[in-house]
Amino acid sequence: MPPAPPGTSPLRPGATLAVTSAATALVTVAYTAPTASLAATAEAAHLGAAGRTWILTGTLVGVTALLLTAGSAADDHDRKKVFTLGALLLLASEALAALAPGGAVYLAARVLLGVASAALLAPALGLISHAHPPGPARVRALGVWGASLGLGIAVGPVCGALVEQWAGWRAVSGGVALASAAVAAFAAAVLTESRAGRPRALDPYGVLTLATGTSCLIAGLAEGRDGWGRPVVAALLAGGVLLLAAFVLVEAKVREPMLDLGLFRDPGFLVATGGALFTGAAIVGYMSYLPTLLQGVLALSGPAAGGVVALWSGLSVVSALQARRLAAHLSATVQVALGLLVCGLGAAGLYGLTPGGSWLRLAPGLVVAGIGSGVLNAALARLAVSSVPPHRAAMGSGANITSRYLGSALGVALTIALVGSTRPGTTADTLATGTDRATLAAAVLCLVGALLALLARRAPAPQAAERAPEPAAAGR
Question: Which DSSP symbol is given to 194?
Answer without folding.
Answer: -
